[in-house]
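Example (one chain per record):
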Amino acid sequence: MFAEGHSKPNFVFSVPFHYNARAAMSIHLSVVIPTYNKATRIAASLDAVAAYLAAKPFGTEIVVVDDGSADGTADAARAALARRGPFQVIRRDHNLGKGASVREGVLAAAGEIILFCDDDLSTPIDELDKALAALEAGADVVIGSRAHPDAEIRVRQRRPREWMGKAFNLLVRLFVLRGYRDTQCGFKAFRREAAHDIFSRLETAGFGFDVEVLVLCRDLGYLVVEIPVVWCDARPSRLRMFKGSWGMLRDLRRIRRQARLDARLRAGSR
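Predicted structure:
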């Protein structure tokens, strides 16, 4: 169930090549990639992810969630993955937002470890080695951070977007959630149990969903580890930047209101 008038998403599921119940039982790692109108670019990202996963000594899958693209992105993804091993391509009939896409992809994933990452691989997929090590060391959730002292920023965001991102993170720390340098990096890995517990409760359909994910981690008691990552900015357009930022502020207001309500309910039940 998504907040503020969003209806439940309507999906058309592809028939994945080489994907069956037996394959699903052997999958250790799932990589979830939300995407929208990237028909000309998605193949390169999927090729890089598939090549990385092919070198792993355990079963893996790629889960692509197309958020209602109008340019054939889902077809391009299926073509790119046709002989790459287990995969799922989930196509939504209508655009609902990144949070909705990640939620559906995570809940559809078969792996014991589930990563979601951006479709442009702004954080290169081989940074997952760091996340796997942190999960092996005991973390329930691992989040990439561009603000970590050891992060490597190879291509910086444009200054207006970087300033807006810092302002948003400041608002998050002041009014919703403290303790994280970077809540918005699109590179987060979860143990399966934690992922399903968190994303089955997620209500934020838009770009502010990362904050709600971390609020749920806090409230549910999951151990979150922040790791430094390599980052290469993909240079989004100015129009999308401002439109997305306004939506994130609305999401932040609702998440703050819900978090305060949940805190009062917990206090009243003691």
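Caption: The beta strands are 11-13, 27-35, 59-66, 87-92, 113-117, 141-145, 152-155, 187-191, 224-228, 230-232.
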